[in-house]
Design goal:
332 residues, alpha/beta, Udp-n-acetylmuramoylalanyl-d-glutamate--2,6- Diaminopimelate Ligase, Chain: A, domain 1, UDP N-Acetylglucosamine Acyltransferase, domain 1, 3 domains, 9-stranded parallel β-sheet, 5 helices, 35 strands, 20% helix, flat
């Protein structure tokens, strides 16, 4: 398939510089693009690739317009990365669509489940009794939604997702473990995307809640009674322990962990592989990495690390005093 640049700009906006009738036949990165493809520059560190790319057209911000125009056609927009995202959506809509049934014959859907007529249920999915699935939601293959869980509209669940398995709750009993029945459910809002093999556990008493617009990558574990705020995004292999509350518009990097019963305020960003060991009530970017050790020693060292900045300033002050004393002694 191919699209004219005029059609792209008509659909997505932007300021076109170059031949409006130019056909593009695919999308690619600056480095990999060849003639007939459309690419984009969204980060200054790739600026050096702009002059050498073979792309027929490049999407750039206004600051790179002159450089992009010198090499060929370009589309100028304030947010090239967002433009590229919408371009991928436009491209996918233009691809030929293979007709598929809304309910795959191998899917198992309990008669007491309520699945919106426009929802699409893939191969080998299991939808238990009492489940509610909203309009235009898509479940890829092998998704399991356990009893009484709710999924909103326009959600996308990738293969292997499990919604509503029991939370990890056990009470110690004389060296053994007594199961705590998980009596809550999972409630997922609208426009949520959940990556392959991610698991969201049902609550013990209250529901586990994923608000509107949340984006979860592959292999993420969300524990029981967790509450994730709107439009928060988590990268692969992140883990959130039970009863944690994560605010809206947060990000959690790949492999990061949020411990149980903690609260992250709106707008908190956790770096990859970090461990949030305390509540964070102020928006910002946080990083926490520390070598494994005996727990008592680790806690002492972690406490010391928090005072390093103060100790550094005290040392600098002492050094300045020593220099003054030496200078005074030398002058005498």
């Amino acid at each position: 398939m191919s699209l004219r640049l005029s059609a792209v700009v008509a659909a997505l906006g932007g300021e076109l510089h170059g031949d409006a009738d130019l056909l593009v036949e695919g999308l690619a990165s600056l480095e990999a693009a060849h003639a007939g493809q459309l690419s984009f520059l969204s980060h200054p560190k790739y600026q050096h690739q702009l002059a050498s790319t073979h792309a027929s057209c490049v999407v750039v911000s206004p600051q790179y317009q002159a450089q992009a125009s010198a090499r060929g056609a370009c589309i100028v927009t304030e947010q090239p990365y967002l433009y590229f995202a919408r371009l991928t959506q436009l491209w996918k809509k233009s691809l030929p669509v293979t007709s598929q049934p809304l309910r795959h014959p191998s899917a198992v859907i309990d008669p007491l489940a309520v699945v919106h007529p426009t929802a699409r249920i893939g191969a080998l999915c299991v939808i238990d009794a009492g489940v509610v699935i909203g309009a235009d939601t898509v479940l890829k293959s092998r998704v399991t939604v356990a009893e009484n869980c709710r999924i909103g509209a326009r959600c996308l669940l990738h293969p292997g997702v499990v919604i509503g398995a029991d939370g990890f709750g056990f009470a110690p009993n004389g060296g053994a473990w007594e199961k705590i029945e998980q009596l809550g459910n999972v409630r997922i809002g609208d426009d949520v995307e959940i990556g392959a093999n991610t698991c969201i556990d049902r609550g013990a008493l209250q529901d586990t809640v994923i608000e509107n617009g949340v984006k979860l990558d592959n292999l993420i574990q969300i524990g029981h009674n967790v509450h994730v705020g709107a439009h928060t995004a988590m990268a692969g292999c992140a883990g959130v322990a039970g009863s944690a509350t994560i605010g809206a518009h947060c990000t959690v990097g790949g492999g990061a962990v949020v411990l149980g019963h903690l609260t992250l305020a709106d707008g908190v960003n956790i770096s990859a592989a970090s461990v949030a060991t305390r509540s964070i009530l102020k928006p910002g970017h946080y990083t926490g990495l520390f070598p494994i050790d005996d727990n008592a020693a680790w806690e002492k060292n972690a406490a010391s690390v928090k005072h390093l900045a103060t100790l550094r300033e005290r040392i600098r002050a002492l050094e300045a005093q020593v220099k003054q004393l030496i200078a005074g002694a030398a002058s005498n």
